[in-house]
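Q: Please design a sequence for this.
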């Protein structure tokens, strides 16, 4: 069993711990992801997202993403015997042959570029190969999944990508950088469909028909993503797996969800869009501790849950690895 996970927030957690004076690293820690857990879980590739919270005013967004890049690069250097940054599928194959893990660098929050194409180029030159266009705030590129005045049940269906956002999407395609629509508004999703030719991803989004939070994708969106050659990654966050009722997110009191709930979303997404459109996007270290899934080392539990929902071994391999690898090959080379 090989695994590609399209999203985790571990690099931010490392930075936050260090800012508190706790010197922890990627090799071994008490987080959901470390190198030992990835090896134990059967991982080939972990996407490391650099999450920039636009509500944090201690640094500018570009300063924050630059600081996170420094943490990531330092961890790659310190652990070069176990993991190496990758830029394309040839690099992944090379690391697999050498018994190393692969780290694909991504950014969660297009606002980190502050609307400047030259900052997008900076990220690309640092090895960033995927950009999540928005998080939960409007930025220079577009609008997030929910309306500012609403709860998480009222999707933003009118405001999508800005003119700058469309320019960014077009430049990302030219560069060979994967467009990520997780957190983007419904209108923004359809703008991406209209303005891209290559496959794109919803790196960590589930099915809205199963759990009606706006962070998840409608059946129409799932079908369109699949027809575009794209992939959505199963998110393990309890709030996006099982409907908690009409209440604000409180990460200190997570909704209970099980690995079976992950399998329910998987079955629905595949029924709607086909087996080729589904991958993994755990959101590890960006979500509360999962009651049945402590971290990357326990992915066998997800495989077992999928098998109980009548996924074959070949289909599980596609969800865990093959579908995302295929997309990476098409976009990254």
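A: Design:
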């Amino acid at each position: 069993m090989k695994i590609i996970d399209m999203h985790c927030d571990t690099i931010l957690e490392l930075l936050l711990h260090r800012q508190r004076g706790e010197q922890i690293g990627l090799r071994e820690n008490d987080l959901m992801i470390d190198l030992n857990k990835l090896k134990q879980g059967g991982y080939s590739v972990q996407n490391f997202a650099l999450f920039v919270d636009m509500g944090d005013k201690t640094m500018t967004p570009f300063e924050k993403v630059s600081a996170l890049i420094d943490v990531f690069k330092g961890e790659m250097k310190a652990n070069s015997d176990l993991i190496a940054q990758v830029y394309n599928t040839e690099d992944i194959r090379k690391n697999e042959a050498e018994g190393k893990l692969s780290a694909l660098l991504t950014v969660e929050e297009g606002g980190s570029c502050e609307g400047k194409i030259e900052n997008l180029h900076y990220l690309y030159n640092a090895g960033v190969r995927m950009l999540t266009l928005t998080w939960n705030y409007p930025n220079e590129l577009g609008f997030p999944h929910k309306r500012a005045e609403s709860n998480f049940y009222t999707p933003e269906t009118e405001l999508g990508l800005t003119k700058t956002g469309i320019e960014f999407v077009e430049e990302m395609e030219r560069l060979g950088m994967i467009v990520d629509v997780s957190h983007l508004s419904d209108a923004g999703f359809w703008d991406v469909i209209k303005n891209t030719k290559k496959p794109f991803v919803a790196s960590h989004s589930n099915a809205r028909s199963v759990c009606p939070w706006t962070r998840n994708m409608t059946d129409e969106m799932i079908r369109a993503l699949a027809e575009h050659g794209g992939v959505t990654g199963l998110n393990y966050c309890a709030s996006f797996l099982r409907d908690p009722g009409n209440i604000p997110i409180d990460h200190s009191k997570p909704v209970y969800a099980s690995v079976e709930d992950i399998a329910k979303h998987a079955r629905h997404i595949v029924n709607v869009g086909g087996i080729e459109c589904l991958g993994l996007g755990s959101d590890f270290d960006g979500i509360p501790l999962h009651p049945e899934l402590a971290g990357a080392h326990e992915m066998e539990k997800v495989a077992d849950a999928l098998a109980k929902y009548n996924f074959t071994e070949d289909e599980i391999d596609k969800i865990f690895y093959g579908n995302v690898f295929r997309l990476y090959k098409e976009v990254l080379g």
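Q: Thanks. Anything notable?
A: The radius of gyration is 18 Å. The mean pLDDT is 95.
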